[in-house]
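Write out a record, focusing on structure:
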Amino acid sequence: MSDTLIYLLILAGLVVILLLSLLIRRQLRDRQAVREQQQRQRIQLEREAREHRRYLVDSIRIIAAAVLHDEKMTMTEGCIRLKVLLDNLAPHLHQHEQFAVINRVFEATSHIPFLEEWQALSSAQKREYEREMAQVEAEQGERVRHAMQALQTYPLEQLQ
C-alpha cells in the first residue's frame, strides 16, 4: 500500500470521526433541549395544580361560610356545590364522618332539576321540590351546619 493511500484513508477516517462527533454533539444538545422543555412544562403544570388546589380550597371555604351566614345559599345548594368541589380536591373526605352529610344531602336531592331545567318547571313542581329540599334540610340541618363549621378550619391545604 502506498503512503498516499494510507494518508487518504486516515483523512477519510478523521472526517468520518469528525462528522460522527458533530452528529453526537447535536443529538446531545437536542436531548438537553427536550429535557429543559419537559422541566419547564413540569414546573408549569405543578404551578397550575397548586393554583387549582388553592382555588378549590378557597371555594370550599367560601361556600361553607355562605351556607352558614348567607341566606341566599341554601344548605341543599351548598352541599351540591361542595360535593363537586370535594370530589375534585379529596374524594375520601366524603367518607369522613363529619363530612358524609354533604354526600347524603347531595344524593337525597340529586334528582331535583337545576338551572334551565328548574326555570322550565311549573310553580307547583317547584313548590314540591322546595318542600323536599326543606325536609332534607330539616333532617340534616344540624349536621350540615357542623360540617360547614368544620370545613372552615379543616386543613384542606394539606390534603393530598
